[in-house]
Amino acid sequence: MFSLWVFGPLTVTAAELEGISASSAELEGISAPSADIMLSFVLGGRVAEVLVKDGDFVKKNQILARLDDKTERIQLTQLKAQAKDKTLVQKASAEWVQKKADSRKIARAKTKGAATDWEVQHARLAVKIALLALQASKFEHEQYQRTYRQAQSQLKRMQLVSPIAGRVEKTNIEAGEAAESLVPVIQVVKIDPLWIDLPVPLEQVRQLRKGNIARVSFPGTDAPEPAEGIIIHVSRVADAASDTLRVRVEVPNPDGRPAGERVFVEFIPAKPVANLKD
């Protein structure tokens, strides 16, 4: 049996009071971008142009910068012509058809005594050789096509492309500079939505589930109500030193508030907004 606590006309059980206090406790955290990516060239080379500047909004797969690729483009043009040219294949195919026709004529001539066994065998061998030549020309043409696709891929590796839609936070290169491979040169961040990682006491975490509502209060905001986010991840490994578990909250940020602010989060475990899978 639960003991009762009476507050004026309202009667609340001790268990309900414990749940209310646990769910309504505000926790302080730091907002962070939902994506923060440092981009670098896979290959080294001279920077031909930088197409963005700090603060620019970029789309997914947008080219941000590229290396000098004049030589590679000339080679690509040559390889493209070779990959499309089927002249050698057509020539070998015509020769094979002609050799087959010659072989049939010689075989008919032998039945009339106008050709020898040696001539028949020689004609059949010529057909086999022509067929091998056709197969070799097809293989060579396929190799040209593979080399062309490889060159296309190599050319793309000389471009810096944004994998996300977001804003350019920082650029560390300029046109004319030498870029080293795998050295970060452009930072792209996504701040809508924001993520907030919170160390939540274990007692409180037991009431939380992925998809629960979380109310987020931003400092200095004029909004009458806190922003409404959801829990998108609850860690499976606790911090034994502090008896806490990391919980990640995602909150919309249509106004573009900067990441890195101190915010206050209140969990509402009784109202899941979605049944999300881990």
Word description of this protein:
- There is one protein chain.
- This protein is of the alpha+beta class and 278 residues long.
- The chain has 3 domains: 22-34 and 191-272, Beta Barrel (Elongation Factor Tu (Ef-tu), domain 3); 38-67 and 159-186, Beta Barrel (OB fold (Dihydrolipoamide Acetyltransferase, E2P)); 71-156.
- The chain contains 5 helices and 14 strands.
- The longest helix has 40 residues, at 117-156.
Largest sheet: 6 strands, antiparallel, barrel
Order of helices and strands: EEHEEEEHHHEEEEHEEEE
Percentage of residues in helical conformation:
25-40%
> What is the H level of CATH, i.e. the homologous superfamily of the largest domain?
Efflux pump adaptor protein, beta barrel domain
**Spatial strand sequence of the major β-sheet:** 3-10-13-12-11-14
CATH topology of the largest domain: Elongation Factor Tu (Ef-tu), domain 3
Look at the structure and give the mean pLDDT: 87
Percentage of β-strand residues: 35-45%
Shape: elongated
Secondary structure tally, helices:
5
Radius of gyration: 35 Å
Concise description?
The chain is of the alpha+beta class and 278 residues long. 34% of the residues lie in helices and 36% in strands. The chain has helices at 14-24, 70-84, 87-111, 117-156, 202-205, and strands spanning 4-7, 10-13, 26-39, 45-50, 57-58, 63-67, 159-161, 166-171, 178-179, 186-201, 212-217, 227-239, 244-251, 262-272.
